[in-house]
Amino acid sequence: MKLSIIITSFNSEKYLKYSIQSVIDQTYNNFEIIIVDDGSTDKSKSIIEYFKKKDKRIKSLYLKKNSGTASIPRNEGVKLSKCDYVCFLDADDIWERDKLKNQIKQFKKNTIISFTSCTYIKEDGSKYSSFLENKIRLYLQKKVLENGINALFTYNPIILSSVLIKKKEFTKYYFDISKSIVGIEDFDLWLKIFFKIKRKNISFCDDSLVKIRRTSNSLNINYSQAFLRYIYCVMRFFLEKKIMKSFQYLLIGIIFRTIKSLFKIFKPKIKKFFLKFILITSILYLIIFYTPLFWYVGKSLVHYDEKKFTKNLIILSGNGDTDYINTSYQRRYLDTKMLLEKNKFKKIFIMGRSQEIEESEIIRSLLIYDGIKEENIILINKTFANTKENISELTRLLSKQNINNANFLTSPYHTKRSKLLWSNHKDKINIYITENINNPINYPKWKQEYKNIKVIIYEYMAIIYNKIRGWI
């Protein structure tokens, strides 16, 4: 199986020698090399002539002036070919040593076109694409191959520098030399070929056997132009072949290519935005969780009245914790225990949040265990959706029992809102907000917990909401 290797170059002196050498070094060597120079003005010709002297398999063709499209030199190279099979290699790309050997192994009698996986490199030869990008590209190549021309509208899996094709099939079409599809003339050819042949006629080698070099002067590096050419190419093909059953795939392809092009066009801005976003987010995270900012913010939510004791104590448990199974009752119990060491209350009213075991029931049981008489504890099992209604209910019950003053115990960050709401009932009852055992003002914090921050933010929002509703 003898092959014609078509290498096209235009002002490629920087990379041309590496491309030619990668072909000469192939472990499979039954081929001819046809190098077509597309009107280069650099030292490309001298490089080509140097290799011609070294290897008799090399032929050359020099076009007088640049054609403006890679289609013309490629087509001219195929016309000079003396073999039944043709490969293409761009002057800035490189083949791995076993590229032809591995590809030919998979090439069967009914194979018309074969292509391989590849990796991308930068101008200096270093890696351009990551391991993940290569894996995604390989996956897409396989998927397109499975789904045929419909998938080809969305993604072009065939890398030109990896192609091995029957010359007889290629010469039915040749590359389109129209300037309107410069840079995607190979994609135009694959559409035509995929439309005519079957899956069994296509061979794919999933080994990465070609290195594609991304250079600043590549024909397809302008993503805006490439996108417009793609639209023109697929629309022209679609209208010529009248394959209306594939219309939805055409639309999906256009949408996919639009997103891809927008990403590539705005990639520097997107990258810059994400770098800023990550930096700002990191700074905010450190400020929020590792500075005393929220300790200072939360201080204004804490309100305690002068240390005055009455004969009545109201415990409102349930605030200051964000979990469904609330543990704030533990802190309210400890607060109460501390108060009972300084004062004896005739009546203790307990209102707690409803959960699997009522908070008020837990606190009552603990107080009875500590020696408080059961008849001195009054449970208020009726709870409401918000603190305003809870306080209104407490005021009604206290007024019914002719109680006009009481100490009030709740979570620290809930004290200010409670005081503001109790102020609406000051003509009926005098309330003294009692200090907690864990008064946060006394313990400046540099490391903040998420739960604490959430409670502080919630209390500020609740105060604003209450003011909007005219409740405070």
Give an overview of the whole structure.
The structure is a single chain. It is built from 17 helices and 13 strands. The protein has 472 residues and is α/β, with parallel strands linked by helices. The protein has 2 domains: 3-218, Alpha-Beta Complex (Spore Coat Polysaccharide Biosynthesis Protein SpsA, Chain A); 298-468, Rossmann fold, CATH 3.40.50. Strands 3-2-1-4-7-6-8-5 form an 8-stranded mixed β-sheet, sandwiched between helices. Strands 11-10-9-12-13 form a 5-stranded parallel β-sheet, with helices on both faces. The longest helix has 24 residues, at 267-290. The protein is rod-shaped and about 115 Å long. The mean pLDDT is 89.
CATH class of the largest domain: Alpha Beta
Q: What is the strand arrangement across the widest sheet?
A: 3-2-1-4-7-6-8-5
Share of helix, binned? 40-55%
What shape does the CA trace take?
Answer: rod-shaped
Report the uncertain regions: none
Whole-number count of domains: 2
Order of helices and strands: EHEHEHEEHEHHEHHEHHHHEHEHEHEHEH
- Look at the helices and sheets and give the structural class: alpha/beta
Rounded to the nearest angstrom, the distance between the terminal CA atoms is 91 Å
Short description:
The protein is an alpha/beta fold and 472 residues long. It contains 17 helices and 13 strands.
What is the element layout, followed by pairings?
Layout: E1 3-9, H1 16-24, E2 31-37, H2 44-54, E3 58-62, H3 71-80, E4 85-90, E5 94-95, H4 99-106, E6 113-121, H5 131-147, H6 149-152, E7 164-166, H7 167-170, H8 185-196, E8 202-213, H9 223-241, H10 247-265, H11 267-290, H12 293-299, E9 312-316, H13 328-340, E10 347-351, H14 359-369, E11 377-379, H15 387-400, E12 405-409, H16 415-422, E13 430-433, H17 450-468
Parallel strand pairs: 1-2, 1-4, 2-3, 6-8, 9-10, 9-12, 10-11, 12-13
Antiparallel strand pairs: 4-7, 5-8, 6-7
